[in-house]
Amino acid sequence: MTLPSFVTILGPYTVIVLTFALAWLVEAFVEYFVGKLADQFPKLGAYKWVLPYVAVVVAVPLAFFYTIDLITLITGADPTWVGITLTGLLISRGAGVVNDFLSFLSGKMKLPKES
């Protein structure tokens, strides 16, 4: 498997920026389409624990579509399905980090108090 042409032309920074952009987009998609439903319908609120798994279901196929393998940047080897899957999992977890950060900025989440 060879790297997509945009990676060879623009270098590894493109892959890193694309990974962060996909993490943000996955967070926005999951929060807007799934999270808003849980907010609007009280019976669905009990199922908000599913949101990280929805992010995985969205992020891993996106990583395969764009052939994003962050391990390739470190090792220099060709992309593998394992590396792409791990990158998809990282993107989905990044979506959770982005969500936590945005919740903190909007005042929905408070920092833990020091003891």
General description of the model:
There is one protein chain. With 115 residues, the protein is mostly helical. It has one domain (5-106). The protein is built from five helices and no strands. The longest helix is centred in the N-terminal third of the chain and has 29 residues, at 12-40. The mean pLDDT is 80.
Element layout with pairings:
Elements: H1 5-10, H2 12-40, H3 51-66, H4 70-75, H5 81-106
Helix pairs in contact: 2-3, 2-5, 3-5
| pLDDT < 50 stretches | none
Query: What is the rounded Rg?
Result: 16 Å
Domain count = 1
Order of helices and strands: HHHHH
Structural class: mainly alpha
Mean pLDDT: 80
Q: Would you report the number of β strands?
A: 0
Largest sheet: none
Question: Outline, from the CA principal axes?
Answer: elongated
CA-to-CA gap between the ends? 52 Å
Number of helical regions: 5
What portion of residues belong to β-strands? under 5%
Q: Work out the helicity level.
A: over 70%
